[in-house]
Amino acid sequence: MKENKLVELSKQFAIDIINLCTNAKEAKKGTVLLNQLLRSGTSIGANIHEANYASSKADFINKFHIALKECYESDYWLDIFKETSIITEEQYLDMYEKCCKIRKLLVASINTATQNNNSYTH
Q1: How many other CB atoms are found less than 10 A from the CB of residue 86?
Q2: What is the pLDDT of residue 68?
């Protein structure tokens, strides 16, 4: 159940990131740096999606860890773009809230998967 919600949220986040970056590029704001946010923001969902086809529980956990790292990177770029007025405070808060929701679900999923993985080995 969590994974389905996570897939949906991360896909919508990627779409929102693409739209945010496209609009900022059209406004000629931070064009080069926007590619960083575009990569990290869309990578979250790609890694979550890839985790569904993991070859092992360890591979699954690893993909979620990568998605989590990309989530933290996206937070960083969103903050930088807010501080430099590439995006508005309102845009930042909206995207930050979405990113936090994904991050919390990722952490919970990683913890659950790790506990389940450890219980099989003992």
Answers
A1: 22
A2: 98
Provide the token pair at 111.
């913890």
**Residue 85, φ and ψ in degrees, nearest 5:** 60, 25
Please give the structure tokens belonging to residue 112: 């659950």
Query: Measured between alpha carbons, how far is 82 from 78 in angstroms, rounded to an integer?
Result: 6
The reported pTM is 0.89
63 neighbors 54 (Cβ within 8 angstroms): yes
Would you say how long the chain is, in residues? 122
First vs last C-alpha separation in the chain = 26
What pLDDT does residue 1 have?
A: 45
Cβ–Cβ < 8 Å for 71, 65? no
CATH 2.60.40.10 for domain 2-117, yes or no, is no
Tell me the average confidence (pLDDT) per consecutive run of 10 residues in the chain, 122 residues long.
82 97 88 92 97 94 98 97 95 97 96 81 47
Give domain limits for the chain: 2-117
